[in-house]
Write a structure and sequence with these properties.
Blueprint lengths: L15 H12 L7 E5 L7 H6 L3 E6 L2 H13 L6 E5 L5 H4 L5 E7 L8 H11 E12 L1 H10 L3 H9 L17 H10 L2 E9 L8 H6 L1 H11 L11 E8 L6
Parallel strand pairs: 1-2, 1-4, 2-3, 4-5
Antiparallel strand pairs: 5-7, 6-7
Helix pairs in contact: 6-7
């Protein structure tokens, strides 16, 4: 691998915890370049830094505009030869990616909106080589309830409490939200073994901007410190799970 993912890439509270987990996963691969699939990877916020670190990344996304931006970004970064774009959605992942071809699959903020999350989880498993890992990020139902309650949206908060999928009326684009048990059972049902769970944006979305901007490094340090600790983890805006396909890792 040409170099590790730069520390600057985890400098924001929205992605710091995810990058921390990914860096640990990459560090355990003995520096070899990996084959990565980023499902719903959009304009390449994860794909391009991973390609800069020497990995080959295939981004699957339904938006042609996002993929065009991805390719421009990869070209500007000098890694266009390591970034590949495939137009399609997560529900058709099995038709787009060869089975058992990926060392690492990213699936961030996707399972909330797909038609069949169980089928997508199975496709993540099938795309991985034995021993490969899936980085999965989902919306947290508890955080959705609390954010609406603290904003005084009592009806929306109450509706979320009683809806098994934790959906809200109006412009809510999520078809479902998760807690850790729900997300873990979904991945386990697909044959993936959950190894790590973290909260993403434990307080970052609750702290007033003037406070966050006054000391962003301390906010970032708190997010990293609290991410794996219940009950703080369990009320974060998003939940991150690192899960692995069973079997020996390929080298």
């Amino acid at each position: 691998m040409e170099r590790t993912v730069a520390h600057a890439r985890i400098a924001g509270p929205r992605t710091a915890v995810i990058w921390s987990v990914l860096r640990g996963e990459l560090a355990g691969q003995d520096g070899r370049p990996l084959s990565v699939v980023d499902v719903g990877g959009g304009t390449g916020g994860f794909a391009v830094p991973l390609a800069e670190a020497g990995h080959t990344v295939t981004v699957v996304d339904p938006s042609p505009d996002a993929l065009a931006s991805l390719l421009r970004r990869a070209t500007d970064a000098g890694v266009a030869d390591r970034v590949h774009a495939l137009q399609g959605d997560a529900d058709s992942l099995g038709d787009l990616v060869p089975p058992a071809a990926a060392d690492l699959v990213l699936c961030h903020a996707v399972l909330e909106v797909v038609d069949d999350p169980a089928a997508v989880a199975q496709a993540l498993h099938d795309a991985l080589r034995p021993g490969g890992a899936a980085s999965v990020l989902v919306a947290n139902r508890a955080a959705a309830v609390l954010s609406r309650a603290t904003a005084g949206q009592w009806k929306a908060a109450t509706d979320l409490l009683h809806d098994p999928a934790a959906r809200t009326a109006g412009r809510d684009t999520a078809r479902r939200r998760f807690d850790l048990d729900m997300a873990g059972e979904l991945l386990s049902g697909a044959g993936l073994r959950v190894e790590q769970t973290h909260g993403v944006r434990v307080v970052a979305d609750l702290v007033p901007g003037v406070i966050a901007d006054a000391d962003p490094e301390s906010l970032l340090a708190f997010e990293l410190a609290a991410a794996a600790l219940p009950p703080y983890r369990d009320v974060a805006t998003q939940l991150h799970l690192l899960a692995r396909r069973r079997g020996p890792a390929a080298h």
